[in-house]
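Ticket reopened. Same input as before:
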Amino acid sequence: MVGLEIRDVSVRYGSTTAVDRVSLSVAPGEVVALLGPSGCGKSSLLRGVAGLEPLAGGSVGYDGEDLAGVPVHKRRFGLMFQEGQLFPHRDVRRNVAYGLETQDLTRAERDERVTALLGQVGLAGYERRAVPTLSGGEQQRVALARALAPRPRLLLLDEPLSALDRQLRERLAGEVRAALVETGTTAVFVTHDHAEAAAVADRIGVMDRGRLLQVAAPDELRAAPASDRVAEFLGLRG
Amino acid sequence: MDRDRSRLSRRRGAADSADHGRSRLRPPLGLKPAALLWGTAVAVPLGFLAVFFAWPVVALVARGFVPDGALDLTGFTEVLSRPRTWRLVGLTLTQAVLGTAFSVLLGLPLAYLLYRRSFPGRTLVRGLVTVPFVLPAVVVGVAFRTLFAPGGTLGFLGLEESLAGIVVALVFFNVSVVVRTVGGLWERLDPRTEQAAASLGASPARVFRTVTLPSLAPAIASAASVVFLFCATAFGVVLVLGGVRYGTIETEIWTRTTQFLDLRSASVLSILQLVVISAALAVSARARRRREAALRLVSARGAARPLSWRSPADVTVALVGAAIVVGLMLLPLAGLVARSFREPDGSWGPGNYVALGTTGERNALVVTVWEATATSLRIALVATVISLVVGGLVALVVSRRPRSAGARRAVGTLDGLFMLPLGVSAVTVGFGFLITMDQPVLGLDLRTSGLLVPVAQAVVAVPLVVRTVLPVLRAIDPRLREVAAVLGSGPGRVLRTVDLPIALRSVGLATGFAFAVSLGEFGATSFLARPDGATLPVVIYRLIGRPGAENYGMALAASVVLAALTATVMMVAERLRDERAGGEF
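Engineering reply: fixed in the latest deploy. New output:
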């Protein structure tokens, strides 16, 4: 069991290099946050891992299997965006059930799993609610339940809390952490907020201009930032 | 790179490297079932366009240039050296420019009133403003002819068989295009930009000139080019209103082919028209692209505030709007309905409607008007199905944004190709059908199968279906598809569970448009419908061309029936329309 292995990955858009030879390993059950300013390439790296962007170089592997040539829908990863991206034409139950519909489950098993997940994200009884009637925080909870439903071997979270207000963000960061730990989900969590990164992750990777500057546990990072840039992103300086 | 072929992917410019870019599903050409899917989605519409549009049009043009198997350009020089040709070109352009200018001028205040201000009955007025656009040209022609005729309500203006009269009718027709296109954008403009300008000391007039108008410019340009197209190729209205004294390239093509059997002149004129239309289409496409880019900047929430009777600007706009709606729209329609109850002897009664069960005075028709109505409905049903299938597939393919520049260009070309029938004269299509479809096509004899007229009408309706469904498909956030794919859906299931359910919301409106267009189609149908299979518009035109007060009365009653049918179809379609459904018209 080796989990996610990112080796020398580059992502380019035309002549712009968004991700520049980044390597990172995430052990099974571990939560790693990618921290950096907007435009630093952290979301592009995430998309490259998901298979949504072609890699200009390097490789992405999971448990020793090279994922080159494995299409997005066969990677068994989960993905959560900043604005939830719930299906507007489906109610809450059918949103959460979406990833289960392609699995070999009976209807009862599916419903049971949906109910359990909604309970887990604090939305018990929301099954029949229409998406537009939900608040921003509720939408993100549904999106999290939907992403966890098919039991992905890796969950990718792209600034999932950034569109929410500060108070809600702080509370939800704790809840996301709890949900990930409880389900034993391996996760990569992209954020530009160092407090959020520290609240959610076991380790934090600091990115700037497409490069991964340093990866370490939050305490270690604070105690010994490798450079001034890293210290700056952690809010330790200027 | 082979492995990203079957994958969801996105396009991104070098400048657009922010973390949260927009992405698009691209046709996954590497995967076999997917390749088959996309191949079919491209091949069916292309085949349809090639056989039922390109071939007839090319055949017609060729018949003019290669009359006896050898290239002969004398027709060209002959027609182009006729002063009459240039007079017609001049009239066509004048008519189109005036029609467009007044449509925009009158459409802007209406768009403001109906999309930026709220007041009781707004929904009703919005519906009313939409009606003219879908009204059959023949009905509009008859309505204004009745209005302008000596003894008519506006007979004193002397507009009968005049350029001014035709321009008024064209504006009646096309104001709704401007109102819907511009209003749709105006509704979603973030009012805070205007408020920011006002807080910087700009007067309302300056805010409008420096903030609002520039934001609306792409929508206005887009609407104007579409209206220009419609005005330049208007056929039914010009034929009914212009009489013998007034004509355009379009009516001249018709006259040349049907009256004088002068195919060479007709084809030269068709080419001349194609040149004008291609130029207009190019402008339209550019304006549309800019508009779609601009749309991302606006907020989705409506920003209409209640109409205030204390604001002089609001009162002015409300009065202007009321004058346009009453004077330009209600008056001709009310006049038509009223006159249809005037019996030939001058008394009031339902006599004209009773006569719809007959073939008219001195048997002007081969079928009764009711029989023609049944034919119209039957044909419209088939034409609607064809145009929904073809137009839906085009919209699906064109909504994709492939990663490679070449494929993107191909998609853009496909988009442009299917706009061509919108501009190419329906008369040209109809006549082209007449000379090409006289033989079995792919083993099917269209003439005896009863498919000839529906297929021709579908050619005309497809662009409208595309333009209605496409914006909805394009508005789907690509990340929805990405989420679906990550959750384990292959490309086929993404289409079925994301694109299809969302696109279905606009299909109601597209169905309504296709049905309405088919019901009112006159240019192509007038060539192709046999006397015993005449549609309602064909019957109406025949009736006003025959002498006798009874026939004219029947034409009015039949026009009311046709208008009522069309309006009903559109109202049902509007009901089915979801808030999210956009559309250009």
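The radius of gyration of chain A is 18 Å. Chain A touches chain B through 48 residues (CB under 8 Å). Please confirm and we'll close it.
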